[in-house]
Design a protein that fits this description.
The protein is α+β, with helices and mostly antiparallel strands. The chain folds into two domains: about 325 residues, PPM-type phosphatase domain (Phosphatase 2c, domain 1, 4-Layer Sandwich); about 100 residues, no CATH class. Helix content is about 45%, strand content about 20%. The chain has twelve helices and 17 strands. Strands 2, 3, 4, 5, 6, 9 and 12 form a seven-stranded antiparallel sheet that branches. Strands 8-7-10-11-1-13 form a six-stranded antiparallel sheet. The chain has a four-stranded antiparallel sheet with strand order 16-15-14-17. The longest helix is centred in the C-terminal third of the chain and has 48 residues. It is elongated. The chain starts with 8 loop residues before the first strand and ends with a helix. About 40% of the residues are buried. The structure holds manganese (II) ion (MN). The site of manganese (II) ion has 6 residues, from α5.
Length: about 450
């Protein structure tokens, strides 16, 4: 279970747009995949204030959130960095009369160690920029907004539906940089393969309802496409505010294998990303900060970083990588292929007798299916549920497993024979009953006849 700790591989993308109404973009995102940090900030205040507030916050976070020499970071470290960012924005606002009162929201996702040393995501926020997660098809907001309408919704005086259109939905109850101290909310979340995380400014969720966001995330597997599409939809739906989206995906095992094979045939850069896979942190093309365009970096997680690693890798890199990558790929392919083949074989190597609606039928596969492999209807029979004796119904309902089609057919034949027998017996019982009832009238007649019998 904890194997994921050093194996989390992430892919991400960010996108931002000024929208259709505002003249400047006061949103900003920061992505530092080499540090395991992503941030969205939505600035506010004055002509230039908003832009400077979000920029100052991102710069401060970039500077103050870091890993120790062993590659460790903590949720507390993220909160500290946000508090430092708060002071940086606050100080800058105090120093310049034009910037007084500027502030910014912030929502940050960082890869950190939990108490037992496993890697988890820390998600921290101030204001109403949000973090969402799509996991196992369930889309949910992970952060609580620090806004007036969110307070009203929590108190029950406003419905979530009305909050979306409430005229005061822009009023925040917590902002970074307005006071010299600010409380920071932080949670930790265990990332699982296939999970998607989204950081965004209110320009997204005020324009696109949650179901719309979720459906884009379900439809577009590529984080670049997903982030671009979310921003596009927000702008298309009105674009009344700046809109910013960062999507961070935790890769599936299969995608990681694909990554490995790409590295095999790829150039140095891909090989370098595989190096990370082999145990060294991948330092991509510097800090990707608001490039305007989306960017995509395949990131491998830090293992405990060994100071000697870099030197080792730079001296013996080309050969060792190719060899190790090839071997690794082979192993992954063999392992994944083997597991798939085994499951496939297991799932399809048996037959069972069960119900197809109300008819008894023979299925190929295992009752209920195995993983993604559902049982298939092999053949139908003439038997239906109501003909069956009560004692066999539970077995058929859960599926009566047989080793082969012949065995399954033999079971059905037996069942058919038993049903025929029962029906024959039932028929004779019925005729007995008929006989009994036909014998009754004569008896009645007899009884009735009795008083009249003296007559003749
Ligand atoms: Mn906004």
């Amino acid at each position: 279970m904890t194997a994921m700790a050093s194996e989390v591989v992430l892919r991400w993308s960010g996108a931002t747009d000024v929208g259709r109404v505002r003249s400047n973009n006061q949103d900003r995102y920061l992505a530092k995949p080499d540090e395991g940090l992503w941030v969205v900030a939505d600035g506010m205040g004055g002509h230039q204030g908003g832009e400077i507030a979000s920029l100052t916050a991102c710069d401060a976070l970039s500077e103050h959130f870091h890993r120790d020499p062993q590659g460790h970071a903590t949720a507390d470290g993220l909160v500290d960095a946000i508090e430092t960012a708060n002071r940086a924005v606050h100080d800058k606002g105090n120093d310049d009369p034009d910037l007084t009162g500027m502030g910014t929201t912030v929502v940050a996702l960082a890869v950190v160690d939990d108490d037992s040393g496993d890697e988890v995501f820390a998600i921290a926020n101030v204001g109403d920029s949000r973090a969402y997660r799509l996991a196992d098809g369930v889309f949910e907001q992970l952060t609580e907004d620090h806004s007036l309408v969110a307070d009203m919704v929590r108190e029950g005086s406003l419905s979530p539906e009305d909050a979306v259109t409430h005229p005061q939905r822009n009023i925040l109850t917590r902002v970074l940089g307005v006071y010299d101290e600010v409380p920071v909310d932080v949670i930790t979340v265990i990332p699982h393969p296939g999970d998607r995380f989204v950081l965004c400014s209110d320009g997204l969720f005020n324009e696109v309802p949650d179901e719309g966001i979720a459906s884009v995330l379900r439809r577009l597997a590529d984080p670049v496409e997903a982030a671009d599409e979310l921003v596009r939809r927000a702008v298309q739906s009105g674009g009344r505010d700046n809109v910013t989206v960062v999507v961070v995906d935790v890769l599936e095992d299969g995608e990681r294998a694909e990554l490995a094979s790409t590295a095999l045939e790829g150039d140095d850069r891909d090989t370098a990303s595989m190096a990370a896979y082999g145990g060294r942190a991948y330092a991509p093309d510097v800090l990707e900060e608001q490039s305007g365009a989306t960017s995509r970096i395949r990131r491998a997680r830090h293992r405990r970083r060994n100071p000697d690693d870099d030197a080792q890798h730079s001296t013996s890199r080309p050969r060792r990588f190719t060899w190790r990558v090839a071997l690794f790929c082979l192993l992954v392919v063999a392992l994944v292929g083997g597991v798939f083949a085994t499951i496939q074989w297991y799932a399809q190597s048996a037959y069972f007798v069960g119900f197809d609606g109300n008819e008894v039928a023979i299925f190929r596969g295992r009752p209920g299916g195995v993983g993604w492999i559902d049982p298939e209807l092999e053949r139908t029979t003439d038997l239906s549920r109501r003909q069956l004796p009560d004692d066999v119904i539970p077995a058929l309902r859960s599926g009566k497993e047989e080793g082969s089609l012949d065995d399954a057919q033999a079971y059905v034949d037996n069942l058919q024979a038993r049903v025929d027998e029962l029906e024959a017996a039932a028929e004779s019982t019925t005729s007995t009953t008929v006989t009994t009832s036909t014998t009754a009238p004569p008896r009645t007649t007899t009884t009735q006849a009795r008083p009249t019998s003296p007559a003749p």
